[in-house]
Design a protein that fits this description.
- By secondary structure, the chain is an alpha+beta fold.
- It folds into 2 domains: 35 residues; 109 residues, Barwin-like endoglucanases (Beta Barrel), CATH 2.40.40.
- It contains 2 helices and 7 strands.
- It has a 6-stranded mixed beta barrel.
- The protein starts with a helix and ends with a strand.
């Protein structure tokens, strides 16, 4: 009896140590997955990360929140649910952003020609390659970016 209990205690301690080690490795693997690397094709220029700015601007005291590149949603997403729960409508003035609260109104201004639109954030985007916002097709049309696909922009916060 005493021998069996001692063996069980050793086995339990060994299993606990193993579980701890597995959990520690899983945490380290998770942290490693968060690290980003910049891989570019031969001859391609690496893109700089979006520039975030917090300052008073010439827009009546509104914050210039970010500068980067904008793209727009493909038509295949029409009718699908957004992160806010509403359905994506390509003809509405909406946008997707990684971190801004849903429902936030922003002004997106093309840096190269000054055209701007006001849109409501209703979705999340997995933007990469310097892209900071995905616009609805209607907003992209108003910015004149349908042909280009991706244009340099700055984002100003209007209201939440």
């Amino acid at each position: 009896m005493v021998h069996t209990t001692a063996c069980q205690a050793k086995a339990t301690a060994r299993a606990e140590r193993l579980c701890f080690r597995v959990a520690a490795l899983a945490c380290l693997a998770g942290l490693g997955a968060c690290a980003t690397t910049s891989k570019t094709a031969a001859g391609a220029r690496p893109t700089a990360p979006p520039l975030s700015i917090q300052r008073e601007g010439p827009t009546g005291g509104r914050d210039v929140f970010q500068q980067g590149r904008a793209s727009y949603y493909a038509d295949k997403f029409a009718g699908r649910r957004t992160a806010s729960g509403e359905r994506y409508d390509p003809e509405r003035m909406t946008a997707a952003h990684q971190t801004l609260p849903l429902g936030t109104w922003i002004r997106v201004t093309r840096v190269d020609d000054g055209r701007s639109v006001e849109v409501r954030v209703n979705d999340r985007c997995g933007c990469g390659g310097g892209r900071i916002v995905d616009l609805s097709r209607h907003a992209a049309r108003r910015l004149g970016m349908l042909h280009a696909g991706v244009v340099p922009v700055r984002i100003e916060l209007l209201r939440r």
